[in-house]
Amino acid sequence: MVERDYVVLEDIALQGGGLIARSLGEIVRSRGVASFVLTGGGTPLALYRAMSGPRYASEVPWQRIHFFWGDERLVPPDDSGSNYRAAWESLLSVVPVPPENIHRIKGELTAAAAVADYTEQLRVWAAAHDPGAPNSWPRFDIVLLGLGEDGHTASLFPGSPVETAAPVIAVTADYQGRPAGRVTLTPPILNDARQVIFLVAGATKAEAVYNTFVNDDPVRFPARRIRVSDAPEPLWLLDEGAAERLESAGPAR
Ligand code: 6PG
Fold it and tell me: Is 48 exposed, middle or buried (0-12, 13-18, 19+ CB in 10 A)?
């Protein structure tokens, strides 16, 4: 029996992009501002492009949305491995987001300096826009997360320490030849989010998705560290490939 909320989407980019675009619009209408944490990697790029396309772009109050990253590689912002660059090219350079609404992790700095800088950015933003937040960081409205074939999410990798009090840490991890030096948000800040959405596509992820759903070992399956407090359970948006093992395991609960 699989006990987590997931949805299988035929067109995960278009449908996922629409869901997030509509949610952001609702959040801004009710609270005047929205904070959206972007994930890195390749999966979200088609979704970002869908959000910037004619179908949704006019629906979203871009001027009232603030963009953050769940993790970043320690490379300059114009590097081909930069999560910021990927989001800039597929979304942020296309839609009318004010530059002051873009809060990137400065991958060009040393690990320690990038962690300190981003931690301070989060503290300042929360003080100005999320004064009711229980900690010195925002309660993000939407956090988008991916999943690696090894089960990592953001830059929380299998076997990494589960417990950390810091909202932002530096890690080193080898994955598919991507830059190893990284800065990542951690469960304490991710679990303060108002909504976490996992976006996973492709049959190569089916095993990692299934194992994450059926194993509650947060050390081996870091996505299990994401247990948002007083907010809806994380929503998993999957395409048919990524859901293959789950669907053959029987109906979700
Ligand atoms: C990163 C991402 C990472 C990503 C997964 C999946 O910096 O690489 O934040 O957590 O979401 O590795 O990546 P793909 O979408 O490319 O499979």
Answer: buried
